[in-house]
Each structure stands twice: as C-alpha cells, then as structure tokens.
Amino acid sequence: xxxxxxSDARAGVEDAAGFAGVADGFQRLWTPHRMAYIGGENKPRxxxxxxxxxxxxxxxxxxxxxLVVARGAAAFxxxxxxxxxxxxxxxxxxxxxxxxxxxEPDEVAEVAELTRTAxxxxxxxxxxxxxxxxxxxxxxxGAGIAAHLHQHVVPRWDGxxxxxxxxxxxxxxxxxLADTRARLAAAWPGPDGSPAPRDVTxxx
Length: 204
Prior knowledge:
Blueprint: H1 3-11, E1 13-15, E2 27-29, H2 33-38, H3 54-57, H4 63-66, E3 68-71, E4 75-79, E5 89-93, H5 105-126, E6 130-134, E7 151-156, H6 163-168, H7 177-187
Antiparallel strand pairs: 1-2, 3-4, 4-5, 5-7, 6-7
C-alpha cells in the first residue's frame, strides 16, 4: 500500500478501481454520518420542552458526551452534531423558547456575549478567515429544530465551499467532533477572562 493509499484509507476514501464494473476514475469519500441527519435522527418528535428536545437534554449530560464547549448562566455553547464546517458551534439558551423575541434581556445579552467569545476562541484555535452567524427562525426558514432557539457560529476558510455539498449533499470534515470540542473547551476563557485552566467535562 502506498502512502497515498494509506492516507485515503484513514480518511474513508475508496478507490473505484477496486469496485465491480468499469472504473470511472473517481474516488469515493464516504460520509455515513450524514445518513443520520438525512433520516431525521435526534430531531424532536414535537415542539415540547424536555428530554425529547436535544437542546433541553444536552445540558444534563457531561460536557464531552454532549459536545458542550462552554456553559453560562442563561445559555451554553455546543458543537453542531451535523456541522457545516469543523468548529461549527451553536449558542443555545437553556430555556426552551422558539423565537428570538421571547428571550429575556439576560438571555439576549449572554447569547450575544457567548457568540463573540466563540468567534474569538475559533480564531485562536483554528484561524478561520470569516464567519457565518445567524438564527433560522421557523422550519420554513431552515431551522432543523425550530422549537428551541439556537444561534449558529460557522467558521469559514477561503476555498471551503466546493462541489461536495452541491453534488453529494456531503461535507469533508478533517477532525473528529470530540477532538474539536476538546480543543475549543481548553481554549475557552475563564469567568475573569483568563485562559481555561482545564477541559471541564461536567456541569458546574
């Protein structure tokens, strides 16, 4: 096996020459995790608060299990389980509300501050060239989980938009979610603005 073949095998890439039939010259990058998203895994059955809602359930989990990067008093920061790019974060209020206008002033302030901190930490850890920030309000606007408000923080790099999402509804992500969470959590500043002294894995 060549170095390139070994690298492709680790990345989940298969050479079409080994398949039955006539090879077409393309390699296949398998992204089986996308099938969970396409099939609706982890999406709530209704709009109710509680364990059926991922954003209500996640805060009760250990940080590493729930992919939580940071916790505030009124909101928390979590990795998107089906990211657009590596480091795609969601800033969510703990309270189960659907609309931005339903947030209390302290929730608005903390969602905003956690979003700013998320940008700073992502810049320090991953060096993105830009960001997409936004909230999809309602299913018609593209919200996958419309009943629980969440702010997207998506790091962007020059050239990160390629043909894969267009022709294959897939994205190539270079890092495991657990590794991304650990790096971002370790870089998240403490309450006094100092660097995080450790990677917190439990709420509190």
